[in-house]
Amino acid sequence: MLPLAAAAAAVLAAGVAAGANESMMRGVPDPKQARIDYMLKCQGCHRPDGGGDDRSNPPMKHVVAQFLGVPGGREFLGRVPGVSTVDLDNVRLANLVNWTLYTFDAAHMPSDFRPYTPEEIGQLRRHPLRLERADMRARLVAGFAQERTETQTP
Ligand code: HEC
Predict the structure, then answer these.
(1) Residue range 47-92, pLDDT digits in tens
(2) What's the mean pLDDT when you consider all of the chain?
(3) Atom of ligand 1 at shortest distance to CA of 81?
(4) What is the CA radius of gyration of the chain?
(5) Which of 7, 15, 70, 81 could form a disulfide with 2 if both were Cys (CB 3.0 to 4.6 A apart)?
(6) If we measure between CA atoms, which residue out of 63, 150, 75, 68 comes closest to residue 111?
(7) Cα(93)–Cα(122) distance, rounded to whole angstroms?
(8) Which of 53, 55, 93, 54 lies closest to 77, judged by CA?
(9) pLDDT (tens digit per residue) in 123-134
(10) In this structure, are residues 33 and 52 in contact, taking their beta carbons and an 8 Å threshold?
(11) pLDDT at 150
(12) Which residues contact 73 (CB under 8 A, 6 or more apart)?
């Protein structure tokens, strides 16, 4: 039988880190802290499995890393209010954002991914997005949806 602590860890891992191998994640010096920060600061909206909901909170699962592949997407991820205004310091926030990308959308991680550094996160969050973010998001999503269609065309 599993010791209690291991069983609890397994449940925790199944909840958020579906299959992600945390030792392979770049820019995530403290995955355990990231899991805790995600639970405390993000999952109320984005849900424990990153699935979001059908109303106002977008899914990150199978989606979020695609922003890295379109111009302006990298900056967008650091400036959305859920990220930029959270009460975590830059070191914990960079750790968490990198972890979020790998955990919920490993399949779309670019092979040459440059992890967010605390310095970059610090720069981006100085300019939190406001109402313009809905249009910006729609444009970025259209950008990667378009790319997908193009690569599928023979
Ligand atoms: C109050 C609800 C809420 C909380 C809390 C929240 N988010 Fe979000 N998040 C949203 C919404 C809504 C969007 C869509 C863009 C927008 O309108 O801000 C979003 C967008 C994002 C995006 C961009 C991807 C996309 O599909 O738009 C990322 C990355 C993200 N959130 C990560 C996080 C992280 C990490 C945390 C915790 C530190 C967090 N969010 C906390 C609601 C939330």
Answers:
(1) 999 999 988 899 999 999 999 999 999 999 999 999 999 999 999 9
(2) 89
(3) 18
(4) 16
(5) 7
(6) 68
(7) 9
(8) 93
(9) 999 999 999 999
(10) no
(11) 72
(12) 66, 67, 140, 143, 144
User: What pLDDT sits at residue 14?
Assistant: 46
Q: In 10 A of CB 60, how many CB atoms?
A: 22
Q: ∠ CA 124-130-132 to the nearest 5 degrees? A: 105
Q: Is 85 exposed, middle or buried (0-12, 13-18, 19+ CB in 10 A)?
A: exposed
Is 57 within 8 Å of 100 (Cβ atoms)? no
Residues with CB under 6 A from ligand 1: 41-42, 44-46, 56-58, 63-64, 77, 80-83, 86, 96-97, 100, 133, 137
Q: How far is the CA of 6 from the centre of ligand 1 (A)?
A: 30
* Residue 133, token pair as written in the block: 């973010």
Mutation to probe ligand 1, out of 33, 45, 85 (largest number of atoms < 8 A from CB): 45
- Report the alpha-carbon distance of residue 73 to residue 31 in Å, rounded: 23
Ligand 1 atom nearest to CA at 101: 29
